[in-house]
Amino acid sequence: MAGVLCYRDGERPHLFYRLHVYHGRKGEPKTFSWMDYRDLIVATTST
After folding, report:
1. Where does the source fall among the domains of life (predicted)?
2. Got the DSSP string for 1-47?
3. Given a cut of 70, is residue 46 above it in pLDDT?
């Protein structure tokens, strides 16, 4: 799991998160890549 917590003055905090489930399939990544983290941060800044 990777998450980002965002705060704004006078508003409730927002939690954005992504789950990564590893199924043990051939060629499947076991962890998040740097691109997954980047996409999570980009998604939080566009909302």
Report:
1. Bacteria
2. -EEEEE--TTS--EEEEE-------TT--SS--HHHHHHHHHHHHT-
3. no
How far from 38 is each of 11, 16, 34, 44, CA to CA, in Å?
25, 13, 6, 10
| pLDDT tens digit sequence for 15-42 | 888 888 889 899 888 889 898 888 888 8
| Residue range of the domain that includes 33 | 2-45
The domain total for the chain is 1
Residue with tokens 């996409």: 39
pLDDT at 21: 85
